[in-house]
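User: Reviewer 2 asked us to show a designed sequence for the structure in our supplementary figure. I'm pasting the structure tokens here. Could you produce the per-position amino acids so we can include them in the response letter?
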């Protein structure tokens, strides 16, 4: 599912909201998650999962075209840990 499909589905299920209102809600939702992660915070949605950041150390990579060694800086990357309910639904028989 892509962002526009999510917005369309939410608009269909909430007929009291207009499409621009639903789009604004989705934008605010994602921007708040992004802002919290950028500040080093954690976002937990009970029953769904938790978004955090993890640090990656600097390392030496390789340019796939030339094979030349390339330095890669240390960075933070987003990480998602699914909640118990999602894991159970994915592994239901």
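Assistant: Here is a per-position design you can include in the supplement:
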């Amino acid at each position: 599912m892509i962002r526009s499909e999510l917005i369309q589905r939410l608009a269909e299920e909430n007929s009291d909201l207009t499409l621009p209102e639903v789009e604004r809600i989705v934008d605010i939702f994602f921007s708040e998650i992004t802002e919290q992660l950028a500040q080093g915070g954690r976002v937990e949605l009970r029953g769904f999962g938790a978004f955090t950041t993890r640090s990656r150390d600097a390392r030496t990579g390789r340019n796939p075209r030339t094979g030349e060694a390339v330095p890669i800086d240390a960075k933070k990357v987003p990480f998602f840990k699914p909640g118990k309910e999602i894991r159970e639904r994915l592994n239901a028989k």
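For the response letter, you might also mention the following. The chain has a mean pLDDT of 95. DSSP finds three helices and five strands in the chain.
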